[in-house]
């Protein structure tokens, strides 16, 4: 279960370290906050999509929410870069990219282990 939240845990642990190292405050906090809030929304959405039995509708809603999430994360990066400083925008992008990378790897490992479990049980 903790593996599901690994990206958010690492982001929360990285924030004080990055701030202590002198990283731009707005970029770090905005990137981390945006990632955590939108990941929690993604988890909630995934739980709701289980109740959608029409495959086309479930797939459409899942893709639409994923695209919305990408646009919102990109917006946070752009706003930080334009409204505060380019360094803050870059920092927000790095925080989001790092969290995305961890989440991507977690998903890959999860899918591989599920496929292996199905092949040995099937």
Classify the helix fraction into a percent range.
Answer: over 70%
Spell out the helices and strands N to C. Answer: HHHH
In angstroms, what separates the terminal alpha carbons?
24 Å
Largest sheet: none
Structural class, by secondary structure, is mainly alpha
- How many helical stretches? 4
Assembly annotation: single chain
Low-confidence stretches: none
**Total number of distinct structural domains:** 1
Number of strands: 0
Shape: globular
Arithmetic mean of pLDDT: 93
Strand proportion, as a percent range, falls in under 5%
Describe the structure.
This protein has one domain. It has 122 residues and is mainly α. The mean pLDDT is 93. It has four helices and no strands. Helix 3 runs antiparallel to helix 4.
